[in-house]
Here is the input.
Amino acid sequence: MSKPEATTESQPFRTWNGRDSWEFVDGVRLHAIGGEQVLLCRVQYAPGKQVPWHKHDDTEQVMFVLEGEVDMTIEEDTTTLRSGDVVVVNRGLHHKLYSEHGVTFMEALAPVPLDHVPDRALDLVLGPDGGATHVEK
Here is the structure.
């Protein structure tokens, strides 16, 4: 018995190679891939760029710094994150980020915040529930 042919929407294997990153805010670009429960992003800040105060009411965020540095403030606590550092931002916490010299990090967000998904057809691999737990902004 042969397997049915996979469509782009059901294909679990994806690549960011050859795809332009998406400018999320000025000077902050990302690639994203997600499924039913979690979104994974590679985020790059150009030198001197920031993401201002914001919060994710329904989404938890875990970040892992690959290279560079970023100053991150969560509520009233500020620290400089460097390569190898990890931070967890529980949902509902106000936070902001600034990178003087540029930074690249990976972040996982759950449930999937659709405002972080550049192209829902290419960047989401949906199963039987069709993304029912995804969060609209």
User: Anything to note?
Assistant: Residues 120-123 form the longest helix (4 residues). The radius of gyration is 16 Å. The first strand starts at residue 22 and ends at 25.
